[in-house]
Amino acid sequence: MKVIIEVRLTERAEKSYTKLPLHVKKKAKRQFKRLIDIPKYPSLRVKKKQGENIFEARVDYHYRFTFIVEEKTLWILSIGPHDEGLGKK
Description:
It comes from Candidatus Gottesmanbacteria bacterium RIFCSPLOWO2_01_FULL_39_12b. The structure is a single chain. By secondary structure, the protein is α+β, with helices and mostly antiparallel strands. The protein has one domain (6-85): YaeB-like fold (2-Layer Sandwich). Helices cover 33% and strands 30% of the residues. The chain has a five-stranded mixed β-sheet. Strand 2 (47-48) and strand 3 form a beta hairpin. The mean pLDDT is 90.
């Protein structure tokens, strides 16, 4: 896997992230770090979205995020409660 040196949020993800409860923000940051350090970490449950170069992962049981990796950047595309975190709302 590519060496990732930074995590960035798209404008959409940034807006959603700022609305999250503090405890979820902390979990999300921890999961982003895990994704960089150990991409197959069990609690992430990373899956590729069908037919796209976009992946989804878990913050926890209720919250999800989608992401792509470009060059050395992990781009968070969406984050939030299940459907919103998967970019469905």
